[in-house]
Design goal:
single chain, about 130 residues, alpha/beta, Rossmann fold, about 45% helix, globular
């Protein structure tokens, strides 16, 4: 399997930093490129989206990796899964919620894993 076209969903939080670092490493190994995706829900603003994707772009640039910034609107898990056919792999972060918090809030990563049509690498932030 050739992971040339890597989708990296980001919400701009520190919880995505480990996944972004792994995606950059993967792109370096494969000679691939990254698309940084921010999904705006009803509570998001344009500045948050720009900052989130710009962080991914800066990490890619520092490593010599091409990064395209993309902002779409909708429910994050649904949009990420719907975009999956356009890519070879998704590398995304997770909060690692368990128990009641997971039951109440759900897991974007879990939903993407269930519905994406490509491999999904989920990276838990250790900070």
């Amino acid at each position: 399997m050739n992971f040339q076209n890597i989708l990296v969903p980001t919400d701009g939080s520190v919880n995505t930093h480990a996944a972004i670092a792994r995606a950059v490493e993967l792109a370096k190994i494969t000679g691939g490129r990254i698309t940084a995706l921010y999904v705006k829900d009803k509570n998001a603003d344009e500045n948050t989206a720009r900052e989130a994707t710009a962080y991914v772009a800066a990490q890619g640039k520092a490593a010599g990796i091409a990064v395209t910034e993309l902002t779409l609107s909708g429910t994050p898990a649904e949009v990420i899964a719907a975009e999956s056919p356009k890519y070879d792999v998704i590398v995304m972060g997770t909060l690692g919620r368990t128990g009641m918090k997971k039951a109440l809030m759900g897991s974007v990563a879990e939903t993407v894993v269930k519905h994406a049509v490509i491999p999904v690498i989920v990276v838990r932030n250790t900070v």
